[in-house]
């Protein structure tokens, strides 16, 4: 058992992506599946008890050694990666794909009320979304779903680990309550002269931000490992044929 744990740990250390059970069974021919799983769980428990800089997690259908979130700041200082975060529009679109997949672009745009061509291309480039095929309806639109990298990024074993709507609502309620307790009342505005009022009315008002669709997904994205290179946004009138080529 001790040697089996060491073998598994060495394999996990050099693996560039989560190792699934079937691949471990092929590599370790002398051990049965239950023995490998027991060794993995024992190894994960040892990492937790030791409380070091790493932990062993089951993500994206496999097992992977990962650094602890509380030490990500020091890792970023060493690697000095370029800041890459998903926009609010990308997060909302990604959340819709995650919860509604398989889904077509028209359904996403119907729910969000805006064109999503450029956002979908960005998610395809970052390999968080993939093209499953085409729906056999008029126009044969592309069908979108999340990728294995999406599961890795959010530390999910599978799609069943996605938070439920109730969990998201509870999280949003707690977050709003905390913000209300921390934010002081805004000062009263001073009366304006007629010329000032006219100036303000002549300027276009600033667009109000949309309500966050996935507050929890946004928080986890900030701490997740980088999903891919940053790209400039593409014009929203991208054709679905171009997206299919990008996905391939």
Element layout with pairings:
Elements: H1 2-14, H2 21-27, H3 33-50, E1 54-59, E2 62-67, H4 72-79, H5 88-100, E3 103-104, H6 105-112, H7 117-125, E4 129-134, E5 142-146, H8 148-153, H9 165-182, H10 194-202, H11 215-223, H12 240-247
Antiparallel strand pairs: 1-2, 3-5, 4-5
Which descriptors would you attach to this protein?
globular, three-stranded antiparallel beta sheet, Arc Repressor Mutant, subunit A, two-stranded antiparallel sheet, 10% strand, mainly alpha
Provide a descriptive summary of the structure in words.
This protein is mainly alpha-helical and 248 residues long. The protein has two domains: 2-78, Winged helix-like DNA-binding domain superfamily/Winged helix DNA-binding domain (Arc Repressor Mutant, subunit A), CATH 1.10.10.10; 88-157 and 215-247, Arc Repressor Mutant, subunit A, CATH 1.10.10. Helix content is 51%, strand content 10%. The chain is built from twelve helices and five strands. It has helices at 2-14, 21-27, 33-50, 72-79, 88-100, 105-112, 117-125, 148-153, 165-182, 194-202, 215-223, 240-247, and strands at residues 54-59, 62-67, 103-104, 129-134, 142-146. The strands form two sheets. The chain has a three-stranded antiparallel sheet. Helix 5 crosses helix 7. The chain is globular.
